[in-house]
Specification:
The chain has about 290 residues and is of the alpha+beta class. About 20% of the residues lie in helices and about 35% in strands. Strands 1, 2, 3, 6, 7, 8, 9, 10, 11 and 12 form a ten-stranded antiparallel sheet that branches. A two-stranded antiparallel sheet has the order 4-5.
Length: about 290
């Protein structure tokens, strides 16, 4: 794998030296930032990029067969802005907002109500509408003080980037005694991005064509009203970076137009709001309703 990457980088370097096509130098901190920006957003500041994904969500309860709960359809609209630090070097910040719709497992229609098979209760579905979902700045110099290098896993000309994000923190819906009785939010998010290494390297293009896979293992969703019942949810989805926001499926565009008009564009690059999650969003909606 490493040899394949080295050859791909060497080829890009030779092209750059010959002046044939401007290429990213993956062995430099600048190249690392450029490659990351082409994958996750764009080399241009304030240039909106849209990702979408679709898949399925399941429930796992001890002693029972796993149950298909929903299909899911999601989108994330984002942009990057340049960030610089005197010690960490050049970098960028990504700002975004995202929606994920829960769909009927057979018909694919947007679910407005859901019949809980464990409690028999009919519940209102609260779709994911997280605004914002921002990332801290990423810089060309790592924590070790060294220039970063772009070193994905390679299979042929395909670059793979894998991110596992274990989450364990105070549940925003819990009480004041979580340190004594538990009730922490405990989940894992897994993202895998794939793109052609030559597409990433080509500096004549501001962004790269990217495919994405997403997996999440998490507690019951708060609107499912499952309390302390044993079990968890898991989601598996695949998607891609779109050519434009307009390439979203009509189902998603119609829902955004009707209920989420801000999601046609990303937040501003200097957005300083705290990130939203399904749990903080549920708390906000619940507190407003009460």
């Amino acid at each position: 794998m490493k040899i394949t990457f080295t050859l791909a980088w060497a080829g890009a370097a030779l092209l750059a030296a010959s002046g044939a096509v401007a290429q990213i130098d993956f062995a430099t901190g600048t190249g690392y930032i450029q490659a990351q920006r082409k994958i996750h957003c764009s080399l241009k500041d304030n240039d909106p990029v849209t990702y979408m994904w679709q898949g399925k969500g399941y429930a796992r309860v001890p002693g029972e067969r796993d149950k298909l709960l929903f299909r899911v359809l999601g989108m994330n609209v984002r942009q990057c802005v340049t960030a610089n630090d005197p010690e960490k070097g050049e970098g960028y910040r990504l700002v975004s907002r995202e929606i994920m719709l829960y769909l009927h497992p057979q018909t694919g229609e947007i679910l407005r109500e859901w019949d809980n098979p464990w409690t028999g209760e009919t519940l209102e579905v609260l779709h994911v509408a997280n605004d914002p979902v921002n990332q801290p700045p990423s810089f060309s110099v790592g924590r070790d003080g060294k220039q970063r290098r772009f070193e994905p896993m390679m299979i042929g000309d395909t670059a793979f980037l894998a991110y596992e994000i274990p989450l364990f923190y105070t549940n925003p819906l819990g009480g004041d005694y979580q340190a004594y009785v538990g009730n922490r939010y405990h989940a894992t998010e897994i993202f895998d991005f794939t793109a052609d290494i030559n597409d990433i390297a080509d500096l004549s293009k501001d962004t790269a064509k990217v495919n994405v896979a997403w997996v999440r293992m998490a507690p019951w969703l708060p609107w499912m009203k499952m309390g302390s019942r044993a079990g968890l949810t898991y989601f598996n989805a695949v998607g891609a970076k779109l050519n434009s926001w307009d390439d979203l499926p009509a189902l998603m565009k119609d829902e955004i137009k009707a209920n989420y008009p801000d999601y046609t564009s990303p937040p501003p690059g200097d957005d300083a709001r705290p990130n939203e999650t399904s749990w903080t969003y549920f708390k906000k909606i619940k507190d407003t309703a009460e």
